[in-house]
Amino acid sequence: MRADAPIGVFDSGVGGLTVAREIMRQIPNEKIIYFGDTARVPYGSKSKETVTRFSKQIVRFLQTFGVKTIVVACNTASAYALDALEAECDIPVIGVVKPGAKTAAEVTRNGRIGVIATDATIGSQIYTKYIKELNREVTIYGKACPLFVPLVEEGLLEDPVTDEIARRYLAELIDIDIDTLILGCTHYPLIRSTLARIMGEQVTLVNPAYETAYELKEMLAERKLLNEEEHKLGTNQYQFYVSDGAEKFKRFANSIIKYGILSAKTINIEEY
Ligand code: DGL
User: Which of 17, 37, 39, 108 is deepest in the core (most CB within 10 A)?
Assistant: First the structure.
């Protein structure tokens, strides 16, 4: 495997851009091929079988670019499909759940951790499992917030509707006095300021994107796969593919990633 090969990153839609953005910041020489499954979003209300089938198709698509590793920039796909993807791939596959769980276990002071995520991620109990492996003493409170994904996909990042829904979802976590809140869906960091305002400054918000990018960097360094070559202008360092609505995706990506004009192409993922 060559160090200058790209990294494959995928999500059900725009949420994984929060992880891609963090990879761009922490390891700026890396090339990224991003896939957002915008035609089939949301994953959070689908079955394990369906999410696993979608994830396998995407990994096959990303492998056509000769990627050196895959980042599953989606908590739902990490919860449901990571094991199946690891079993099928001969390159490393990194999910977002473990890194976020590790940070939460480290930062909590009162041992009361909240997790907000999709129905699928909460139902899988994956955060509880990983956090308990690190610290048996903590209590984890999960809360599914299924309306956040469509709100983010619609670009309602700062909006009274988002505010109202967030207040309703978060009320019970405020009542039980958590001191740490994991943003257990890669879409949620995009409404971080709303969540932070409602939870109050005594609650630490954990964004697994940061830790995931850090773990990726460590793993690549260990395997001598970090790209040392500086990126040359005009060589398509970041490429974006979606299963529908490339123009809308492109506008969104350009609003949150400030690395010049990013373009996106639509592909038929069912062919993979
Ligand atoms: N961004 C995703 C996650 O981290 C999935 C959202 C969805 O498609 O439901 O879980």
Answer: 17
> Which residues are marked as active site?
74, 185
Report CA(184)–ligand 1 centroid distance (Å).
9
Reported as a pLDDT band with limits 50, 70 and 90, residue 232 is low
How far, in Å, is the centroid of ligand 1 from the Cα of 117? 8
Average confidence (pLDDT) over 38-53: 96
pLDDT of residue 233: 59
Structure tokens that stand for 251 in this block: 């506008």
d(CA 211, CA 217): 10
Domains of the chain: 7-95+210-271 (3.40.50.1860), 97-207 (3.40.50.1860)
pLDDT per residue over 138-191, tens digit each?
999 999 999 999 999 889 999 999 999 999 999 999 999 999 999 999 999 999
Whether the Cβ atoms of residue 148 and residue 159 lie closer than 8 Å to each other: no
